[in-house]
TrEMBL record:
InterPro entries: Rce1/LyrA-like_dom
Biological process terms in GO annotation: CAAX-box protein maturation; proteolysis
Pfam families in the record: Rce1-like
Domain CAAX prenyl protease 2/Lysostaphin resistance protein A-like, chain residue ranges per copy: 158-254
Transmembrane segment boundaries: 111-130, 150-171, 191-212, 218-239
Protein name in UniProt: CAAX amino terminal protease self-immunity
Domain of life: Bacteria
Keywords linked to the UniProt accession: Hydrolase, Membrane, Protease, Transmembrane, Transmembrane helix
Segments of skewed composition (Pro residues): 1-16
Any one GO MF annotation of this record: endopeptidase activity
Region (Disordered), start-end ranges: 1-25
Length: 263
């Protein structure tokens, strides 16, 4: 039997030669999920957040939510600057970008910002629909944000930006991912691990917003909505990435604070 020839076959006339390059860069959908957009969205917000706090005198009371909890948890024996969590988050995002080769084209940024605004408006619409059936929500803070018929001030806007950044970093990038990883180590099916991680981190997210409330002010309607909002942010993070999740959270908080609520 004649052995097969090792001579490469002759090219077919008119056929394109096979490409030796790897797969092309991801499109908009895949690019949004990488570290590049997370840097483009989060770093300018962090810079504005820290610069704004410094411009307003550096009052620690301007730091709310997770950022304030981190500062309160550090013992006085360790004089860590108030801006250390922002620097740590920025360094972590830069390290993620070094490890993540996916690129995000600058021309996609307006579309990404519009997506964040639309998703934030979608959650506000969900709240308005929820409020129709649960009057207990009326006049209550939403995710720690109280609506006002007046334009929001610089201090409130800074607090909302910081809350959006650090809550997404803590509950989505941190808790959700760690919960999912732990469940996968235990051989939980991927779909089930994802659902449990999203729901569980959202439950912790809702519980955290009730810490320090005065006795008797707890409302199940508010708690359930905050849990639903946490699930919403979780799936934005899972499907669209950290950058879109941060932008959506900040957009939602600012929309709630500037919405013309009835007095």
């Amino acid at each position: 039997m004649r052995p097969p020839s090792r001579t490469p076959p002759l090219p077919v006339p008119g056929a394109r030669p096979p490409s030796r390059r790897g797969p092309g860069p991801p499109g908009y959908w895949g690019g949004c999920r990488g570290a590049s957009l997370a840097l483009l969205v989060t770093l300018p917000m962090l810079a504005c957040y820290e610069a704004g706090i410094a411009a307003l005198g550096g009052d620690p009371a301007l730091r709310t939510g997770v950022d304030a909890w981190i500062g309160a948890a550090i013992p006085d024996a360790y004089p860590v600057p108030d801006w250390a969590p922002s620097v740590a988050l920025a360094v972590g995002l830069v390290a993620w970008r070094v490890a993540d080769p996916r690129r995000f084209r600058a021309r996609w940024l307006p579309a990404a910002l519009a997506e964040c605004l639309l998703l934030g408006a979608g959650l506000l619409g969900l709240y308005l629909a929820f409020d129709r059936h649960f009057p207990a929500l009326a006049g209550r803070p939403l995710l720690g944000v109280a609506g006002s018929p007046l334009p929001i001030g610089a201090a409130e806007a800074l607090s909302l930006v910081g809350a959006g950044i650090f809550e997404e970093a803590a509950f989505r990038l941190g808790l959700l991912w760690l919960t999912y990883a732990g469940l996968r180590i235990l051989h939980t099916p991927n779909a089930l691990a994802t659902a449990f991680a999203a729901s569980g981190s959202a439950l912790a997210f809702s519980m955290a917003h009730h810490v320090g409330e005065p006795p008797g002010s707890f409302s199940w309607a508010v708690f359930v909505f905050r849990w639903l909002a946490g699930v919403y942010f979780s799936w934005v993070f899972i499907l669209r990435g950290f950058g879109i999740a941060v932008g959506t959270h900040v957009a939602y908080d600012l929309l709630v604070a500037s919405y013309p609520w009835p007095e």
